[in-house]
Hints:
This protein is 31% helix and 9% strand. By secondary structure, the protein is an alpha+beta fold.
Amino acid sequence: MENYNAPNVKRKKLKDFLDSKHVQHEWKSVDAWMQSFNSREAWKERSLEKTFVTKEAKKIHAIPSRYRSHSASSSYVLSDDKKSWRFLTIEEIRRILSVPESLVFPSHTPMTRIVEFLGQSVDCRVIQAIGNVIGKTLYKFATKSGDVVQSISRKAVQPLSESTSGQLELVI
């Protein structure tokens, strides 16, 4: 099997994913958050290194399914004066995770459910990379044999079939 290395790319900063300046956000007090944080015994030993992040941050915490709750394990955008913070917007999370605009949520879906869905998802660049490897493998088979489905079905460890629409399916 071929060895695939991650591409050598320049790490983006949070500012590359944020909404434009004309988008209004709800900002909250860092002092109020810290009072709540310090009042909880269970949180006292938690690191806040990636909790409040500036636009220049290159790393943030994972976006958990419960992102809209206050937690030291989540990352929040810190204002320029470092006195206020805000949640990442759905559009910002979509950009961070490279979720295509073609993914549309029904209009009745609450924001908390959309954030939960995105928080439990996988970065779409990972899915794209897997798809590219599968596509490259299928292409190799296609160039060696005229009938891709028959060729792959015979050589695959996991049985494959072709759906009525011509898509390859795994037979479970």
